[in-house]
């Protein structure tokens, strides 16, 4: 056997280890949740590989999947062992010594910010294995990859201080065993009762049996919650499951749980969180919806299971039709997946609609956290545009939290358009001269101040049969609200000021597209209007701070 080799951790890994060892004080016991969740993933990956590689992993004994947790009071150790897929030597070095994960830098930043020392961040950033060093000052991991011979076992050891060693060892059974040598002062964990309650609290819904101290009765439920009949489940069960799934400390706002049988068979259990995660606006969110195939966890994905504008949705999709070795490519193509995805989108939009109709206060919370994300669906998802349009909320010259349906129900007699003003800040919007004539006529105008609103109104020319009309673009247009006297007065004014308009045009030649007399203003002498070629949002931004 080759001698022990020593390696240095990558700089970021070393920083994370240092953090684990020295600055985490709350909920230290979450290390167990992280290691158990790795074991559970490893068991799922083994089940997939047994089918995919019958000549290697397929030759492994068909023992019952299980995760064992034990402790030794004398030695001061806790051991977590699984019969999952295990790791080869290269995998150990690649997966444990290297952190090439998108979340790492963010994690370090978040940890040095106001949430310093908050263990809740660990699960959210996927740096779970290292959490062993919260309570241990030495960790030994022994593993053997499914399908490799017994003499290709690997032992990895580290004190979490910049280096680790790797050596090749004999190991008959596949899977991974992790031994934590507890730091001084962590002895209270060496207690069956204590470990049981930690497992119950954080890992109850792990779909594999967790066996404690040689006992054959699992500590956890060990069944997939979503596969249980709805009638058996209480609100609390869903909330517990959600918190274990996401590591969120808050309960979700709402969930939808459906089993679909028919041409395709699948179960959806999807949640709307009550708070936006830190990474909602990063180019790549880290947590998404988890895809299972017949209870076996296959992958977690943020783009292909849910459209981008619903990226805040968490939960599980379990399909009976997809192959176990489903690839990310299959996710993009296949009919079964297309069907499931579109059904999932419909269910989520329906869930939101029911919330908006039945629990407006809850919906206001949702809108505050995720409204700007949902709006992206108007340009991005034409198939559901009408449903999304009904979920939108705006501020107007008269009310907050205005839906388009509210607006329409309050329209003036003779009004046939939904008027809006795009402006980068609500205070700018409220004082805009474009609103003067609308105030005069007591017409409500929606004030759109979000950067994405520009795309929303471009993609949504109509709501029901009402056109959305900017108050700042093109010539003023009151439709049927304009009476004959107004028109006559406007024409008269046009004639009266033709000379002045001619002079102004000459003077502004090359700088203004057109100059015209308007009835849109009541107290300001003049205003600048965007033409069709320039979006008014861009115009407003360009004019910001120029005094116009
Ligand atoms: P994550 O689980 O988010 O990938 P972790 O830090 O928890 O991050 O684990 C890093 C990697 O180490 C895992 O992705 C996996 O490849 C490997 N690993 C950890 N624990 C085990 C285990 N018990 N069996 C097999 N592989 C494991
Ligand atoms: Mg993990």
UniProtKB/TrEMBL annotation:
Pfam family, one: HSP90
Histidine kinase/HSP90-like ATPase domain: residues covered: 27-186
Assembly and oligomerization: Homodimer.
Keywords: ATP-binding, Chaperone, Cytoplasm, Nucleotide-binding, Stress response
Keyword tRNA processing: no
Organism of this sequence: Actinomadura monticuli
The protein, known as: Chaperone protein HtpG
Domain of life: Bacteria
Lineage, highest ranks first: Bacteria, Bacillati, Actinomycetota, Actinomycetes, Streptosporangiales
Gene: htpG
Gene3D superfamilies for this protein: 3.30.230.80, 3.40.50.11260, Heat shock protein 90, C-terminal domain (1.20.120.790), Histidine kinase-like ATPase, C-terminal domain (3.30.565.10)
Similarity field: Belongs to the heat shock protein 90 family.
Span list, region A: 1-328
